[in-house]
Amino acid sequence: MKMIAIVGSLRKGSLNMALAKSMQERYQGKFDLEIADIGTLPYYNTDDEEHPGDTVLKLKKQINEADAVFIVTPEYNWSIPGVLKNALDWLSRGDKVLINKPVLIAGVTPAMLGTVRAQLHLREILSSLGISARTLPAGGNEILINMANDKFDASGRLVDQNTLTFLDQVVDKFLQMI
Ligand SMILES: Cc1cc2nc3c(=O)[nH]c(=O)nc-3n(C[C@H](O)[C@H](O)[C@H](O)COP(=O)(O)O)c2cc1C
Questions:
Q1: What are φ and ψ of residue 24, in 5° steps?
Q2: Closest residue by CA, ligand 1 atom 1
Q3: CATH number of the domain that 140 lies in?
Q4: I want to staple 108 with a disulfide (CB 3.0 to 4.6 A). Which of 42, 46, 145, 173 is the partner?
Q5: 177 alpha carbon – ligand 1 mean position (Å)
Q6: pLDDT digits (tens, 9 = 90+) for 77-101
Q7: Which mutation among 6, 7, 19, 77 tests ligand 1's pocket best, with the greatest number of atoms within 8 A of CB?
Q8: Is 134 helix (H, G, I), strand (E, B) or coil?
Q9: Given this model, what pLDDT does residue 152 score?
Q10: Predicted pLDDT of residue 65
Q11: What three-state secondary structure class fits 24?
């Protein structure tokens, strides 16, 4: 099984990227997780929609060929970062590669509320006409990793046992849904 991760932070020391990489390692027996590069996408422009360029075409191809998508996002000002919204806007047009695609959502923050507001916005966006992705119901399945500086080790690996146990449960439910 193949999954593509879209990470909403471009920062070198990103905690959200650390989660994607931790999951890549932890679940390698269950699925291949390839991490997409959304930092090189151009700004979405309707004028370019029919010929969007190589980076957009590559992302669409990766998603088309994947069984599922994993979106890991920080919260910026109570919503998702612009770089992630930009990627989703590209993916919502032309060949709409996210329609009916299973999408798992997660977010990491050093703060208290664990990206809950960003994830609520993300769920609305994923329900829009051009995206219409399939997600697990929010209740019981929200991967909200708060106070994250204490939950990853110095090499960026997620080590908090309670979080790992919960993650395993949600990932299993997601794989069943697929
Ligand atoms: C522009 C900006 C806005 C932010 N807004 C929020 C916010 O609304 N809620 C929150 O929990 N953290 C907020 N943060 C803090 C981020 O959660 C924190 O920087 C986090 O580490 C970013 O994710 P990353 O480590 O994957 O880059 C914000 C950070 C930035 C740079």
A1: -55, -45
A2: 76
A3: 3.40.50.360
A4: 145
A5: 30
A6: 999 999 999 999 999 999 999 999 9
A7: 77
A8: strand
A9: 98
A10: 98
A11: helix
149 band by pLDDT with thresholds 50, 70 and 90: very high
Q: How far apart are CA 32 and CA 110, in angstroms?
A: 27
C-beta atoms surrounding 90 within 10 Å:
25
Span 142-163, average pLDDT? 97
* Total number of domains in the chain: 1
- What's the longest Cα–Cα distance across the chain? 48
Helix (H) or strand (E) holding 164: helix 161-177
- In this predicted structure, the answer to whether residue 139 has a pLDDT above a threshold of 90 is yes
pTM comes to 0.97
**Domain containing residue 150:** 2-177
Q: How far from the centroid of its chain's Cα atoms is residue 90's Cα? A: 15
pLDDT of residue 114: 85
- Ligand 1 pocket, 43 CB below 6 A? no
